[in-house]
Design a protein that fits this description.
transmembrane; membrane
């Protein structure tokens, strides 16, 4: 019999850690889908911020900002504006969905890796049974 981190018990049941990883992956996936659907439905359109963006997106504003703080400040302001746009739009729902799907896939992969036996272990078990 293997410990709780091992692959299987003597009777062939999966280890508690493997079951926990599968359940965590399923919970992450379900929560990610639910959160993405909620974010997608509650996202506001970005047309209300058009005037604000037009004022801060002018060349005069860019030159003043770059003159005061340098190129790094200008790039940081552009990145912040882009991040605000992603945070409040439907594309954020897609980002959440992709990240949650990746995390769930990592849990499923880890659980599968705990259950997979290496080729040398399979050969060793077959040799023991035939003797």
């Amino acid at each position: 019999m293997m410990n709780s981190v091992g692959k299987q018990d003597e009777d062939g049941r999966p280890s508690p850690l493997r079951i926990l990883l599968y359940l965590a992956g399923a919970a992450i996936l379900a929560a990610g889908i639910a959160a993405s659907a909620f974010l997608y439905m509650s996202a506001t359109s970005s047309t209300g911020k058009y005037l604000e963006y037009a004022a801060s997106g002018s060349k005069q504003y860019a030159l003043q900002l770059e003159g005061v703080g340098g190129r790094a400040t200008f790039l940081a302001a552009e990145f912040t504006r882009w991040l605000e746009g992603v945070w409040h739009s439907r594309s954020f729902a897609y980002v959440v969905l992709v990240l949650c799907t990746a995390a769930a896939f990592a849990c499923f992969l880890a659980a599968h890796g705990l259950g997979a036996r290496s080729f040398s272990e399979q050969i060793g078990d077959d040799d023991d049974r035939s003797a």
